[in-house]
């Protein structure tokens, strides 16, 4: 019998049991040998907290702002593809849970609910960002951007770590493809044709092909790669460069968040393109295996952007309130997670996601009180000790 989950690991264990082998494999996998997947967690465990006491923590401040929007805590739900595989509530369940909690959700390009429907199902309320994959046919990308704008999404989260799909063993073994009955809803014919601009009206055959392939559940797979890999190789734009952000900025006024940055060098290139935020991520360790844990490169990225107004977010291994606190101490404005929302969704649809988010809020509050951190916007660096920090020398 299942007991009530008391931490995110419990949610994960329950979800693991309930999901089909193929869906579980898809959601949980990292790339190759999953070195970076393990490291994303272990790196958090290596960081130690340096609590301060006899500080008034009766009224701590969890609220902050993200891209100028007030949020109840510094947490974003990361984009994850095909959420209806977890539960029929799917992306709508995640969006409503985030809306109620007062935090942003990020909808994947590869969602099983369209931008338009997610927004309508939330009554147009809530803070939503749209995660963008770019297609070889720019008309498709243009169309996606315009529909996200029309649906009231407030930022574009451009994923940069996916020129092609990482190799995930489980997906190959399970010949993963989208279960029958679900579709990649953002490629259904747009409901409101009026949202298309002049460039959007002349959509090429490629868009039709994407739509058909999406409908067929990415059925084209072989022994050596998953259907998702075949699908993305065919349609996604592997020729994207930093310069392409200029084109994106020419078609939208939405702030651009670049997701997948792992080095100071790329943070600086993102800055040169005038992005609003940099999201440190290794794609849940699903792309290039052998990269550092995100928390281990956070400070490098924060240092590269110091003195600018560019916000820095981080995902990868956030499972505890203390993890959030550690990332804030290293300079993140907010953190994000993807899989825990999927576990909540699997556990109990929208309600399960709400439980997961509330658990994180409670844990963050507890961590702050126990360590003497009073405000999420000003967590001091010396609240933590990184493994690479010099041994303590008295500054007193
Ligand atoms: C090259 C395309 O985020 C995942 C999703 C989808 C990735 C598409 C990448 O499976 O990690």
Describe this structure in words.
The chain has helices at 8-18, 21-28, 35-46, 90-101, 115-121, 138-150, 169-173, 198-201, 205-215, 227-235, 244-251, 264-272, 294-305, 321-329, 339-371, and strands at 48-49, 64-66, 69-71, 75-77, 105-107, 128-132, 156-159, 256-261, 277-280, 311-315, 334-337, 384-385. Strands 4-11-10-9-8-7-6-5 form an 8-stranded parallel beta sheet. The chain has a single domain, classed as Aldolase class I (TIM Barrel), CATH 3.20.20.70. The longest helix is centred in the C-terminal third of the chain and has 33 residues, at 339-371. The chain is globular. β10 (311-315), α14 and β11 form a beta-alpha-beta unit. The protein is of the alpha/beta class and 396 residues long. Bound molecules: (2S)-2-hydroxyoctanoic acid. (2S)-2-hydroxyoctanoic acid (HOC) binds at residues 81, 110, 162, 164-165, 232, 236, 283, 286.
């Amino acid at each position: 019998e299942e007991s009530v989950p008391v931490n995110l690991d419990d949610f994960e264990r329950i979800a693991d049991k309930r999901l089909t082998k193929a869906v579980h494999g898809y959601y949980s996998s990292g790339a190759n040998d999953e070195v970076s997947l393990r490291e994303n967690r272990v790196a958090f465990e290596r960081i130690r907290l340096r609590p301060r006491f006899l500080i008034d923590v009766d009224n701590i401040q969890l609220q902050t702002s993200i891209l100028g929007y007030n949020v109840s805590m510094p947490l974003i739900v990361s984009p994850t593809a095909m959420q209806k595989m977890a539960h029929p509530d799917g992306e709508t369940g995640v969006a409503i849970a985030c809306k109620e909690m007062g935090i942003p959700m990020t909808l994947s390009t590869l969602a099983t609910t369209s931008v338009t429907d997610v927004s309508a199902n939330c009554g147009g309320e809530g803070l939503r960002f749209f995660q963008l994959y770019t297609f070889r046919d720019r008309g498709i990308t243009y169309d996606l951007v315009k529909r996200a704008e029309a649906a009231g999404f407030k930022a574009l989260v451009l994923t940069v770590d996916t020129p092609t799909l990482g190799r995930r063993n489980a997906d190959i073994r399970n010949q993963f493809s989208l279960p029958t009955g679900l579709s990649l809803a953002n490629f259904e014919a747009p409901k409101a044709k009026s949202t298309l601009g002049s460039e959007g009206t002349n959509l090429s055959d490629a868009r039709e092909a994407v739509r058909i392939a999406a409908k067929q559940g990415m059925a084209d797979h072989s022994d050596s790669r998953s259907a998702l890999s075949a699908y993305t190789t065919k349609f996604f734009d592997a020729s994207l460069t930093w310069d392409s952000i200029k084109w994106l900025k020419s078609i939208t006024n939405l702030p651009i968040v670049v997701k997948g940055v792992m080095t100071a060098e790329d943070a600086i290139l993102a800055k040169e393109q005038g992005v609003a935020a940099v999201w440190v991520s290794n794609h849940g360790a699903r792309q290039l295996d052998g990269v550092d844990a995100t928390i281990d490169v956070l400070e490098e990225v924060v240092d590269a952007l110091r003195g600018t107004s560019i916000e820095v977010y981080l995902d990868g291994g956030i499972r505890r309130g203390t993890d959030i606190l550690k990332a804030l101490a290293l300079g993140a404005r907010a953190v994000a997670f993807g899989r825990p929302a999927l576990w909540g969704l699997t556990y109990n649809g929208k309600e399960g996601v709400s439980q997961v988010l509330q658990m994180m809020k409670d844990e963050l509050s507890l961590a702050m009180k126990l360590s003497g951190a009073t405000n999420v916007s000003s967590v001091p660096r010396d609240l933590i000790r990184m493994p690479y920090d010099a041994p303590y020398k008295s500054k007193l």
